[in-house]
Amino acid sequence: MTASARMLDDADVLFVVWDGQPARGYGGTADVAVEARRREVPVRVFWPDGARRD
To answer: Computed from CA positions of residues 2, 33, 31, 22, in that sequence, does the dihedral angle turn out positive or negative?
Structure first.
């Protein structure tokens, strides 16, 4: 998560491939997306085949 937070310091937008599930450990995709949104960095999600959009 530390590396992801550092990356977000310089990001204009975050692109993620995400299955929509919660992180399976601290620093997973869900955690990074939430942190980006908290920082008001736009998040663009690419959904893999079979992913659920709850």
So the answer is: negative
Q: Which residues contact 53 (CB under 8 A, 6 or more apart)?
A: 20, 47
Largest alpha-carbon pair distance within the chain? 32
Domain that holds residue 8: 2-46
Give a yes or no: residue 14 inside a domain: yes
Please report, in tens digits, the pLDDT of each residue of the chain (54 residues total).
Answer: 999 999 999 999 999 998 878 888 899 999 999 999 999 999 999 987 776 665
